[in-house]
Each structure stands twice: as structure tokens, then as C-alpha cells.
Amino acid sequence: MSGLFQEAILISIFAATLRTMTPLLFSAMGELVTQRAGIWNMGVEGTMLMGSFIAYFVATSTGSLWLAVLAAILAGAVMGLIIAFMTATMRVDHFVTGLGLNLFAGGITLYWFQSYVRGGPQPSFAGFEDVPLPFLSDIPFIGPVLFSQRLLTYAALFIVPAIWFLLYRTRYGLELRCLGENPKALDVKGLSVPVRQYGAVMFGSAMTGLGGGFLMLAFSDRFIADFSAGRGWIVVVALIAGNWKPKGVLMAVVAFALLEAIATHAQVVGVGVPRQLLLALPYLASIILLMGVRFRTGQPAMLGFPYSRE
Amino acid sequence: MSLLPSIKEPTPANARKAGTEETPLALRVEGLTKRFAGVTANDGVDFELEVGEIHCLFGENGAGKSTLSACIFGFCTPDAGQIVVRGQPVEMHSPRDAIKLGIGMVHQHFVLVPEFTVLENIIVGTQKSGWRLDDRAARQKLKSLCDAYGIEIDLDAYVWELAVGRQQWVEILKALYLDVQILILDEPTAVLTPDESARLFAIMRKMCANGMSIILITHKVAEVMQSNRVTVLRKGKAVATVQTKDTSPEELARLMVGREVSFSVNKSTVAPGDTVLEVSGLGARGYWNEAVLNQVSLSIARHEILGIAGVAGNGQKELFEVLSGVRWSREGTIRLNGEDVSRLTPRAMMDRGVGHIPDDRFREGLVGPFSIAENLILGWQRNAKYRSGLFLDRGKIAALSKTMMARYQIAARDDEVPVENLSGGNAQKVILAREFLHSSGLLLANQPTRGLDIGVIEYVYAQLLQKREEGFAILLASEELSDLFNLADRIAVMFKGEIVGVVDPKTATVEEVGMLMAGRRMEAGR
User: Fold this and answer.
1) Among A225, B71, B233, B324, which residue has the least CB neighbours within 10 Å?
2) How far is Cα B353 from Cα B384, in angstroms, rounded to an integer?
């Protein structure tokens, strides 16, 4: 293989990594906020799927991609509202709530999809294009990797420091982290625990909805059943692997995205490994990673425990 | 007094002082009634708190102390009656309302975030900083509070780094930072050494001198005697309010229980027999590989009770876990009747007649949803006594539980009742029954009287002393020094995983033990 070809492949892999990690990053940062607030949201997959479907529906019926993004965010927030009602108000087990919601989302999106298509030809749309930044995208190697991406990918890179600032440098962030560690400490100061948990879950789920929307609008032109294909679960794993810290979660997400990019490129280049095995790489990696992560020092102490005064 | 100049300016207390003539009471509770699912926790309770007094709420578990304080702190809303704060009738729906009225509370189980620093714990939820965290004002205010009350604490230390006793100062600072006028302290000395308790009382008196009023919830008679007034609660009713100087510990105990209580313990003078347990150079490590036990050596003979004193978290729990086989030691040997048992499993220890009464009775001693009968054979279910072939022999188990419930006076409808529905005292009796029945020779009792009422404590004392008479060797840890002075033949004091001294309860004083608990070693040659 020539050096030029190798460089082209590398550029393509890294660019794909950034593109692939965009939806994961939106979702992971949102769920980081949710989990730091003590809600162990297992409904990420379903929320992401819902975001994808709603984005598809709005994009094909209105033709506006940005309207589709907005709709995906709203759909996520609504899913978050349901999760918050179940966990913070009804104090249902967090796992059961999330798993139930995943089943619900899988069923309802398929039902809506089939009623929308009605056996006819499936509507499709033209997704987001790359937006190369002037001058920056001309830098060799770095330009095509970093500065020739979709607009939302640029936004996703900003979200990590923004979430870090929110969690560690604002009063709201301190209260949020307190919710996950010991919600009673807020309750005894007269602050409502459920109100803050609603906020955190709805924000997190809206971000996951956005991730699902981006997945649809940047990677595809139509919806298929189980479109999100386990990416929500990757997000859950990334939180654990990233030890519930923004930087750690970012690194976990990058690792998964890189593996996925390598897997897809390996098919193109023609590595003698079955395609299915290559595509399973990120999921295999997540299992191996979780076996390696034994100390969960960053796990919020009250993560997953419904709060009640006594 | 110019003692506390830095406090006087920021607190609104002094502004209100002009009005103290018309409203001499900081707080008045009139006919407060609170029911939970048919149980009347508070029944027409009247209570008064004067400005600048320490007023004790004294009573057994379930007498209604916690419910009353929860109502005063806005945690629950009374069904009847009213709360009057500085002459104004108020309705409180959440702690937020209470805090606005200047009422603060230090909870029995600290409400702290271990992962936060001291400062973060104090400012979280106070909403005094802007949207961006700004702690400069808070630092300044806390520094002057610390100076004024003589509290030494590093504001930037993480709470998990602090010893339990120091965490109490964080709770106190949380309340002071909110400018409270009325402070409720719920069993504040449970985790303090005698020395720290004394300092806490000194701080409380400074608070009162500064115009604050304190409600002190306790069941320790010695602490009640340091208050100004006492209100005794019994079965949800306020049975008496007395000036502390006009009463005596005996009278208070009688008021609390409703009958005469004997504090004296009849301990026979049996000479210790052969050595049962011999431990030497024991060392163990915790989850983070930190040393939790270090060079622990002790021995107990037949007819002997060895007491273990120490503030909670100084290795007592780990010692009991190692001795019962639940936790493995890294170093040292354990000999039981001469046999090396250092590497035996809990089951092998049980087979050798070791009984274990763990400190957390509901988490480690019992299975909450299981019935009394099932809990009585817990750990012995494989024993042929309770089996017929592959199956549990229900008949034999029922016969056993009937006998045990009668012998140990376990108050329950029948042996099918889940133990989680039992009171702490009855639950403890289930554990006592099981361990006494199955053990022979060695009994490990960790905090057997924790949280129990005086009546039940008397009972546990009698049972332990009877076992001593029968020839058991008993290791008894307690945070209540009175337990140890009453029962033990020798008292070993633990500090940071080590035994820092062994004293004879007949000659030692509480102060001496207290010094050892705070980590001051015995001088050589003593």
C-alpha cells in the first residue's frame, strides 16, 4: 500500500471517529448529568431510538432538518419526563423503568413507522452535509479530520467543557452532584429533591434525543427497525468506564467511536475477518472494559436508589 | 460580652432581642398530635423552649422524640395542634419553612456528602452564592464562626477524610452558617468520645449565651443532667417537664420507663477458667488496602467478659468479623481452645461453638422479610436437627421457635411474623436466642444494646451475665461505657485498629477510658 493511500485511510478513520462519537457524546454528557443526580437511567437506548424516529418523521414530512433536530430534542425531553415521573415521583425501581421504556420505544417506533409508510415506498431525506470551516479545513491532515465535519459535531466538542463547568463550577452543579451522593443533604436545606431530579433527567434525555436525531440525520436517509442498534447501551457503559467524570466519559466514547470507525474501514480495506465480528468490536470492547473496571470510585453513592425521607 | 463580637453582627438574633420582653419563648408547641398509619406517635404534646436554654427531650425509642422534632423542623406536618415560633403561630410544610424561621437541626445520622469538602457540605443548597460558585463570603463567615466557637476544622478537607467525631463539627457549622436561632440536636454524642462530648456541650453553652435556644434529644442520663430543663416523653405523651436542677437521674429514668429501674447489676465473682480465645498480632486490611487492624492481641478465659471500648469505626467491627471468620486476617493467629482457627470459614467457626451478635442487627444479624422461625435457624438450616431428608422439618422448627419465643419473651403474634416488623428490642432477642442456642464456649457480642430501651438493656445484661456464669468467654464491644463498666471483667480500648490499653473497670475511671478512646496511649509502667 502506498503512503498516500495509508494517509487517506487514516484521515478517513479519524474523521469517521469524530462523526461516530457525536451522537454518543451528546447522549453520554446528558446521561452524566442524569446519573450524577442519582437517577440510574437505563432507558437511554429507547430514548435515543425515539429521537431517531421523530427526527426521521419530521425530516421527511417537513423537509427541514433543523426542525427535525428540535423535534428529536423535544421527544427526548418527553421521554425524560416519563422517566422522572416513574423514578422521582412514583419511586419505581430505576432499572425496571428504563427497561420498560426501551421495550415501549422499540414497539411504538415500529408501529408508527409502519403506519407512516403504509406498505408504500419509504420516504427518505437528504441528511446533514459536512461543513468545512474556511482556512482551518485546509490544514493538512488535521483539517480534514477536525474541521471538515457536520455542524453538530463541532457543537458536541464544546459540550464536554460546558458540562464540566456546569458540574464543578456552578451552584446548580454542586446541588446536582449532591443529589447523587446524598439527596437528604439537599432536603434538609429545604430544597426539593424531585424538582431537581426532573430537571436533570429531562435535560439528559433531551441530549440523548438530540444524539438519536443526529444519528438519523447524519448517518442515514431512512428509518429502520431498532435503528439505534445498541448505541444507548454503549453510552451506559461509557459512563461506568469513564468513572462518572466528564473527561473519563469522553475518553470512553472516543475509544468506542474509534473502534467502530476501524471496524467499518477494515471492511473497505478488506481485512480477512468476518464482517459481523468487526461490527461487534465496540460491543465486545465494552464487555472487556467492564470486566477491567473494578473500582467504581466515581459512582454517585445514591445512584439508583429512589429517595424518600425515611 | 465581647467574647463573640464577630457573631453578633451578622445574626438577626440581636435585632430581635428588643422584642424578647413580649415573646419570652423561642418556641411553643401546643397539643401536637401526629399519627402514622394508625399509630399515634405524638399525642397532644405540649412543649416550651425559652430563649437561651438547653431543653432536653428525653424518652425511650418510639416515645415520640423524633416525630416531635421532625414536626418542629417541618419534615412532617402535625395532624392537630400548633407550633408557635417567637409568638407567631406558624405552619411548616418543609424544612425550607423551618430554616426561614431560624430553626436548624443536626440529625442523628449525619447528613453529609463524603465526596464533598467541608466547605461544599456547608454551602450546598443554601443558595447564598451566585449561579457561579463563589465561596469567598462563605469562607470568611465560617472562619469567624470557627474562631468564635473554638472549632478547629480544615474547610477544604474532604468529609470522608474526617474522623466521625469531627464530622459532628461540620454539622454544627452547617446550622450556624444558616444563622439558626433554634437548634435541634438529635443524639449528637452517639459517635463522640467523652472528651468531644464535653467540647460539644461547651459549644452549646456558648450558643445559648449568644441568644440561641437548643433542643437536645438524648437517652443518656448524664447528658440530660447538663441541660436546663427536661421534658420526658413516654408513649407519645409528654409526661413531665422539670427543671434539671430539681431532679435526679433516678427520677428521670422512672419517668421515662414508667416504673422503677434498677441500674445495679448483680455480677457474681467467678474466677476465670482456662483460656478459650487467644489472639496474637492480628492484622487486617480494608477495601482500600488500609490497615483496619494492627497488632491486636487479646485473650479471654472461661467465665470472663472482655469489654472493647472505642469510638465507632476504630476497628471493632473488623475485629469481630475476623474472629467470626467473615473477614480474613493478614497477620497473626487466632487460637480457639488451643486450635489454630485463623483460616476457618464462618461456618467452621459456628461448628466450633462461636456465637456472633453483629452490630447491625437488621443488615447482618437477620433477614428482614424472613419469619421469626426462619431467622431462629438462620445459618443452621443444614443441621440435621432442623431437617428431614432434603427438606426443612417445619414441625421441629415450629416447636423450637415456640420454646424460644417464650423463653426470650419475644413479643409477636406468632413465629410467622417477618422480623422486619419487630421492634429493635424484639429483633435483638431473636438474635440472642439463636446465638445462645447454637453456641458453646465463645460469644462475640458487638454493640448488643445499641438503640435498645432500658428495659431490654436490663434483659440483655442479665442474659450475658448468665452466659458468663455458665462458663462462656465473652467478647463485648459497646459504645456505651456504662455497659462495659457494668459487665466487663477487663476493658480493652481500641483506637485506629489497635488496642491502646487495657484497664480494670473496678479501678479505672470513665475519664481514663475516654482519654484512651481519643488515642492517648497508656504511659509505660502503668
Assistant:
1) A225
2) 16
B308 and B448 assigned to the same domain: yes
Query: What does the pLDDT average to over A267-275?
Result: 76
Of A106, A104, A76, A93, nearest to A40 (Cα)? A93
| Residues 6+ away with beta carbon under 8 Å from B52 | B208, B209, B211, B212, B213
Minimal CA separation from B75 to chain A, in Å: 8
Q: How far apart are CA A268 and CA A262, in angstroms?
A: 10
- Spatial neighbors of A182 by CB under 8 A, at least 6 apart, are A301, A302, B111, B112, B113
In a domain, B174, yes or no: no
Domain residues for B509?
262-353+439-526
The answer to whether position B138 is within a domain reads: no
User: Is pLDDT above 90 for B265?
Assistant: no
- Number of C-beta neighbours around residue B495 at 10 A: 20
- Compare CB distances from B124 to A169, A175, A301 and report the shortest one's residue: A175
| Nearest by Cα to A234 from A295, A177, A294, A279 | A279
Q: Quick check: is B32 in a domain?
A: yes
How many domains does chain B fold into? 2
* Least CB–CB distance from B125: residue in A170, A189, A309: A189
pLDDT over threshold 70, residue B211: yes
Tell me which residues of chain A, numbers 282 to 301, contact chain B at a CB-CB cutoff of 8 Å: 301
Of the residues B210, B242, B257, the one at which a domain ends: B257
A180 in a structural domain: yes
Question: Is the Cβ of B258 closer than 8 Å to some Cβ of chain A?
Answer: no
Helix (H) or strand (E) segment spanning residue B473: strand B473-477
* B137 reaches A (C-beta below 8 A): no
Chain A and chain B share a number of CB contacts under 8 A equal to: 72
My answer on whether B187 and B283 are in the same domain is: no
Q: What is the mean pLDDT of residues A172-188?
A: 95
User: What is the pLDDT averaged over residues B200-219?
Assistant: 94
Residues of A with CB below 8 A from B124's CB? 174-175, 178, 185-186, 189
- The count of domains in chain A is 1
Residue A271 has pLDDT above 80, yes or no: no
CATH for A286: 1.10.3470
Q: What is the pLDDT of residues A115-157, one digit of tens each?
A: 999 988 899 999 998 999 888 888 888 888 888 899 999 999 9
Q: Which of chain A's residues have a Cβ under 8 Å away from the Cβ of B98? A: 190
Say whether both B266 and B246 belong to one domain.
no
Contact yes or no for A189 and B97 at CB 8 A? no
Q: Which helix (H) or strand (E) holds B463?
A: helix B454-470
- Per residue in B79-136, pLDDT tens? 999 999 999 999 999 999 999 999 999 998 899 999 999 999 999 998 777 788 888 9
Task: Tell if the CB–CB gap between B124 and A185 is shorter than 8 Å.
Answer: yes
d(CA A281, CA A266): 11
Rounded mean pLDDT, B493-512: 92
Interval B385-408: pLDDT, tens: 999 988 999 999 999 999 999 998
Q: Other CB atoms closer than 10 Å to residue B123's CB: what's the count?
A: 26
Model pTM? Answer: 0.81
In a domain, A241, yes or no: yes
Phi, psi for B218 (deg, rounded to 5): -155, 160
The interface pTM score, or ipTM, of the predicted complex is: 0.90
Residues B104 and B220 in one domain: yes
Residues B443 and B519 in one domain: yes
CATH number of the domain within which B323 lies: 3.40.50.300
Q: What is the mean pLDDT of residues B200-227?
A: 92
- B249 in the same domain as B288: no
Could you tell me the strand order of the sheet in which B291-301 lies? B291-301, B275-285, B331-336, B339-340
Of A181, A186, A191, the CB nearest to B115: A181
In a domain? residue A303: no
CA distance B132 to B142: 19
**Statement to judge: residues B106 and B200 lie in one domain:** yes
